[in-house]
Each structure stands twice: as structure tokens, then as C-alpha cells.
Design a protein that fits this description.
Helices cover 25% and strands 28% of the residues. By secondary structure, the chain is α/β, with parallel strands linked by helices. The chain is globular. The structure holds alpha-L-arabinofuranose (AHR). Alpha-L-arabinofuranose (AHR) binds next to loops.
């Protein structure tokens, strides 16, 4: 019998920013996804309302923009002012031409409609600190300066109050315009952050550390702390996983790699805080994460606008990653699903509409039901093995508590391809009050996917159950499924 034991007294606050998103000028994310003025779905700003409505269901509190690799060659000034006067530029990151019709003010307007907090990344590739500082002034400035006047002239009297600013994207990757050695980045970060904070001391800063996991991320972190710890709020890491060898068990075992990376960075940040006597917290931002391999050139595949088509096993992988963020809530204070529409995304459009990819559903479920605290879970039961790992638990579990509503949400990914797993869920303190809402994401098999012709093959099924015993509840988790059990306490 499988067992999940929950101790609601052992909890830590969960930052809703772990349900963030990321939009890049890449393929059909902005143009043809978020923004398509000649679409029948467009509003007066040219924003696709069907996309906004679908995104609203994901309740993303924060949105990273404008890249990604794109930002390392981006001039923000190209994207402001009258659209008719904006210049198209070559985008070397994605070998494209950027029309610059959509820029800072369009994004802010779009983000405010969606009720999501903008998070800008500045160009630390071929851009300089002057440009970065000017962008902060243009967005957030209130004094009577030329840049603030320019923003007003562009129609934005009030400051945008952009709170989150990242310095550079994946600067550790040799594929990046303006790759930086650990020392170069530590110095760059310090000088950029200094002047950006002088313009607006209230902003939060995110440092780009780990994306090429073969690079020297320990040395990078150490040098960054040594040089710039007083301007550090978040350390950013990125990862993408995939079923690269078409081996389901091996794919599901990515939980171990994720777990390892998160605990390694937690330890590293902790050690640095001790060494440099830093009392305030410095958090982890996993500000790009997802499944990406079918359109990844590193695996010999065509880029194809990164228009990855997701299946059920990928939805399980989303649940596994969200479980890890919840379990590591003490250190992971931001995570951004990369990306939001068309480009490795939960939403896929064409001219006539959209469909929701399989990965949409676990994200929606967790984002809508997660409470404000992560609670401690212990679980044991049936296991599986791979060439690399043995004794991995088939269930992957996390839980959150909503103190105000007195609900406990238990998230379970069943990684068994064939077996339903009967499981006892018990509380070490507190009591189930009766009603239990069960939401299950599943489909006919692990390769099932949604598309325009069959948009509902994989989705969420809901039912109402009752906990008859106040401290114990037995439930059978379907094979290859993601389940949330929301208990009234
Ligand atoms: O999200 C797609 C790309 O993945 C981003 O541009 C880059 O930051 C990462 O390598």
C-alpha cells in the first residue's frame, strides 16, 4: 500500500510567483500569439482576446519579457514611440527580422490587462549599462527628465512601476550574444545593478547564473556574491527536460535531476550567505523551465519556431516540476513557465482560434488550487527503476495549505504507465472536514495529445468525494495521471 503522510504544522510560505510565465520575441509568441491586430479576436490594442482569456485561467502573477536569447541583441528604444516610425531590425538570436511593432508600452498594457506583474530582462549581451539604466528611468521615473517626458509623450503619464529586473539572459551559454565568463558577468552585474538601483532603489534584481549545466555555475555564483551581493535579490537558473530517448521511465526520472539542482543551489546560496554574512534572503528564480526537445537543435531537431506539440507524459512532467517548486518553496520564490503561447507553450493558436495543449491543464490546476503555504509531505510505496536510478517512488507528491479557506491541496503524479496506485493519505494533526474535490488530468495513453481536430483528448476531470475518516483518506491514483485532491479541513 502507498502512503502519504502530511504534517500541516511543518510549513513554509509559498510565493505565488512560482506560477509565473515568460514571453519572448521568438517565432509566433508575440506576433500571431499575443498580438495580431488583423485577427478577428483582436481587441483595440491588437491583443488576441482568446489568448488573454486562456491565459487568465493560468493565473500567472508575473511575466518575464522580452527574452530569452532575443534580449541579448535588443534595443528597447527600437520598440517605443509611434509604431509607424519604428524600425525593423535583424534578430541574430533567432535569425529573424523583428518589426518592433510590439515593445515596452504594448507589453505593459497587455500585462495590466492580464493582471500580471511585468518582469523585464535587460540586454547584457551587446547592450550596455547606460541603456539598461535608461530603460528603468523610462519605465519607472517620476522626475522631469527627458526620458520621463518621452514616456509621457508616448501616452503614459504614470510610471509603469516595473518591479522586477533581470540583468542578462543565459550569459553562461556560448550560444548567447555576449557570452560572459564568470568574472566578466560578476563585474557586469555589479555595475548594471548599481546604476539601475540608483535610478529606482525599489526594484528587485535577478542575476543570470545557470543554464549551461556543464559550465562553472559554482564559480559563477561565488564570484557574483563576492562582487555584488548587496544588489542580489534572486539567482536565476534555467532548465528544459525532454523524453529524448523515448523512454518513459527515464523521462519521469528527471525528478531526480531537478531535485538535485534545486538542493545544490539552495546549499550554494546558503554557503555564500554565510561566507559573506548576508542576513537577508536571496532566492532562487527558475525563470525558464519546461519540456523542450522536439524542436531543440542540440538534439538534432529542427527549430520549427519552437512549436512543440505536447502529449500526456509531458503534462506529467509539468506536475513533477511544480511539485519540486512547492517542496522547495523556502528557496524557490519565482519560476516562469517558458513560454506562454505557440513557442514551447500551453496555448497554441492559428488564425481561426486556439487549442489548449496537455501541459496547460496541470499548470492551471496547481495555479488555481495552491494555497499560500507549502506543507511537509512524507510518502512511500511502489517504486520503479531506470538504468541510472533504482527505487524511485512511482508517486511524486507535494501539498499546500490555504489557511484562510482551511483547505489542503495534495498534488500527486502517478508515474506508473499501467497501474492505479491505491494510497492512504493521513494527517499527523488537524482533521479532514468531509468534502474532497478530486481533479484528475489524464488521457487514453501517455502519448495522447490535443490538437485543433481533437482538442479535448487530454483534460481535467472533476468529482466531489467525501472523507469519512477525519485523519485518513484512501484514494486510487489512476495510471499516468496528475491529480489534485483538495480537502476541506
Ligand atoms: O525559451 C527559449 C530559449 O531557451 C530562450 O530564448 C533562452 O533563454 C533559452 O535557451
Amino acid at each position: 500500500m502507498n502512503q502519504i503522510k502530511i504534517d500541516i504544522d511543518r510549513r513554509t510560505s509559498l510565493d505565488r510567483n512560482i506560477f509565473g510565465g515568460f514571453a519572448e520575441h521568438l517565432g509566433r509568441c508575440i506576433y500571431g500569439g499575443m498580438y495580431e491586430p488583423d485577427s478577428p479576436f483582436a481587441d483595440e490594442n491588437g491583443f488576441r482576446t482568446d489568448v488573454i482569456n486562456a491565459l487568465c485561467r493560468l493565473q500567472m502573477p508575473i511575466m518575464r519579457y522580452p527574452g530569452g536569447n532575443f534580449v541579448s541583441g535588443y534595443r528597447w528604444m527600437d520598440g517605443v514611440g509611434p509604431q509607424s516610425e519604428r524600425k525593423a531590425r535583424v534578430d541574430l538570436a533567432w535569425n529573424a527580422v523583428e518589426p518592433n511593432e510590439f515593445g515596452t508600452n504594448e507589453f505593459i498594457t497587455w500585462a495590466r490587462k492580464l493582471n500580471t506583474e511585468p518582469y523585464f530582462v535587460v540586454n547584457a549581451g551587446d547592450g550596455d549599462m547606460r541603456e539598461a539604466r535608461d530603460w528603468v528611468e523610462y519605465c519607472n521615473g517620476t522626475v522631469d527628465s527627458a526620458l520621463v517626458r518621452l514616456r509621457r509623450q508616448h501616452g503614459y503619464e504614470e510610471p509603469h512601476r516595473v518591479k522586477y529586473w533581470g540583468i542578462g539572459n543565459e550569459v553562461d551559454g556560448h550560444w548567447q550574444i555576449g557570452y560572459k565568463t564568470p568574472y566578466e558577468y560578476a563585474r557586469t552585474y555589479l555595475e548594471f545593478a548599481k546604476v539601475m538601483k540608483w535610478v529606482d532603489p525599489s526594484i528587485k534584481m535577478i542575476a543570470s547564473i545557470g543554464s549551461d549545466w556543464k559550465e562553472q555555475w559554482i564559480e559563477r555564483t561565488q564570484l557574483l556574491f563576492e562582487q555584488a551581493s548587496k544588489h542580489l535579490d534572486y539567482i536565476s537558473i534555467h532548465w528544459y527536460v525532454g523524453n529524448r530517448h523515448n523512454d518513459f521511465a527515464d523521462y519521469m526520472a528527471n525528478s531526480e535531476l531537478i531535485e538535485h539542482r534545486l538542493s545544490a543551489f539552495e546549499g550554494l546560496i546558503d554557503a555564500m550567505r554565510l561566507q559573506y554574512d548576508i542576513k537577508r534572503p536571496i532566492s532562487l528564480a527558475v525563470d525558464e523551465w519546461n519540456v523542450w526537445y522536439r524542436t531543440h537543435p542540440s538534439y538534432g531537431n529542427e527549430l520549427n519556431g519552437l512549436e512543440e506539440k505536447y502529449n500526456l507524459e509531458d503534462a506529467l512532467m509539468i506536475g513533477i516540476q511544480l511539485n519540486a517548486f512547492i517542496r522547495h518553496a523556502a528557496s524557490v520564490k519565482m519560476a516562469n513557465l517558458a513560454q506562454i503561447v505557440n513557442v514551447i507553450a500551453p496555448i497554441f493558436t492559428n488564425k481561426d482560434g486556439l487549442f489548449l495543449q496537455t501541459i496547460f491543464f496541470p499548470f492551471e490546476l496547481y495555479s488555481q488550487t495552491a494555497g499560500s503555504e507549502s506543507v511537509d509531505v512524507f510518502w512511500q510505496g511502489a517504486t520503479f527503476s531506470t538504468a541510472e536510478h533504482s527505487g524511485l517512488r512511482l508517486l511524486d507528491v507535494s501539498a499546500t495549505l490555504d489557511e484562510a479557506r482551511r483547505t489542503l491541496s495534495v498534488y500527486v503524479v502517478n508515474r506508473s504507465q499501467d497501474d492505479a496506485l491505491e494510497t492512504t493519505i493521513s494527517l499527523t494533526s488537524g482533521a479532514f472536514a468531509g468534502p474532497v474535490r478530486a481533479a484528475v488530468i489524464n488521457g487514453p495513453d501517455i502519448k495522447s495529445e490535443n490538437n485543433f481536430a481533437n482538442p479535448n483528448v487530454v483534460g481535467t476531470r472533476e468529482s466531489e468525494l467525501t472523507a469519512k475518516d477525519s485523519t485518513k483518506f484512501t484514494y486510487s491514483f489512476e495510471p499516468h495521471s496528475v491529480t489534485a485532491l483538495v480537502f476541506a479541513l
